[in-house]
Amino acid sequence: xxxxxxxxxxxxxxxxxxxxxxxxxxxxxxxxxxxxxxxxxxxxxxxxxxxxxxxxxxxxxxxxxxxxxxxxxxxxxxxxxxxxxxxxxxxxxxxxxxxxxxxxxxxxxxxxxxxxxxxxxxxxxxxxxxxxxxxxxxxxxxxxxxxxxxxxxxxxxxxxxxxxxxxxxxxxxxxxxxxxxxxxxxxxxxxxxxxxxxxxxxxxxxxxxxxxxxxxxxxxxxxxxxxxxxxxxxxxxxxxxxxxxxxxxxxxxxxxxxxxxxxxxxxxxxxxxxxxxxxxxxxxxxxxxxxxxxxxxxxxxxxxxxxxxxxxxxxxxxxxxxxxxxxxxxxxxxxxxxxxxxxxxxxxxxxxxxxxxxxxxxxxxxxxxxxxxxxxxxxxxxxxxxxxxxxxxxxxxxxxxxxxxxxxxxxxxxxxxxxxxxxxxxxxxxxxxxxxxxxxxxxxxxxxxxxxxxxxxxxxxxxxxxxxxxxxxxxxxxxx
Length: 480
What we know:
The chain is mainly α and about 475 residues long. The protein has one domain (about 1-390): Sodium/glucose cotransporter (Up-down Bundle), CATH 1.20.1730. It is built from 19 helices and no strands. The longest helix is centred in the middle third of the chain and has 47 residues, at about 155-200. The protein is globular and about 70 Å long.
């Protein structure tokens, strides 16, 4: 039965990919859906790209175990900063400026905003190189889940997921991503409801009223405003996973594709509610892990197996199957967005720049081929044992460190100079990589510093470097 349901789910995704292929004729269709995406699809596409198997398998398990109920600060950060404020502050100016500059990707936006072709090349390379470990962490999380819940060997699950993602993405591009995200978002909403009900009502938890007393009996810090892990570790995770979305190209891409400004208000509310629900379901479940295990030896000292093991212990078979589809939906939607953005970095930002007269049909074909190559590289890296949360945090922190400040400041501040933007991007990458080494692999803290430092560096450097001409400022900030 379980394999039939999974096969049916995969068949639906492939069918949606096939439908999308008929609507994908140009490069604009393949990458941005013709900039014609409505509020519900935009919102669920953003939310499903935000959350993947990494949140349910890596972040929720490890963070819940380390911080207890104070992990709910991450939920608030993800919902308010990562979704609501991102849409409220960034969606409208991003859509307007990318249309004005005729920019379809983050590298293209930065190149035109700061009048620098070199910045386009640098940004494209950052995206392609550092989205690979991010993509690999998603594959790993999903494969752990298949192995823990259904006994499907890790490697087999890995290959199956990669092949299905590649096929429907290659067929339909961004249109396929959005159609499947709508379908997957509905499954995620239902799945989280069942997950919370069965975990909270399990004998280990004993219902909502028993949560605080039972956790307090184990360790009072598990119910404190800041848990055992301490404020620095906790709030670096809050900032990394919340503010970081402002600089991730697979997230900002959703703003490029909005149909019109009327979509933004509805999408902002829908995204906030969706992200609040999904984040709460994942992190709250992780915060209850101490009620299930006295120590981590029960999960082989592997924090990535905390949530799958809890699900195995508490959920009936049919609900576990639904949760599998939840995690599968969260992961495949994220994977599709990552692969599409990484492929665009190579084809749209590098190949098209080198060969500006290349035919559109060839560009779309190259995009499809590049999607396959990116999936293969990510798959290879996922076969190498690693800690999911470190892999994800390193990728997330480096990419957001490079792009968040020049992107956000570039939307609102006319006085940001080319030199300052370059220094900001480079400092973000160097800080993320360097601090990861100096802090002995503390990737959340390294990534947080890498994001925030350029926000301070860029305005200061802009005061002492050559400003842009009035003509360039008019081109960037004035509607034609």
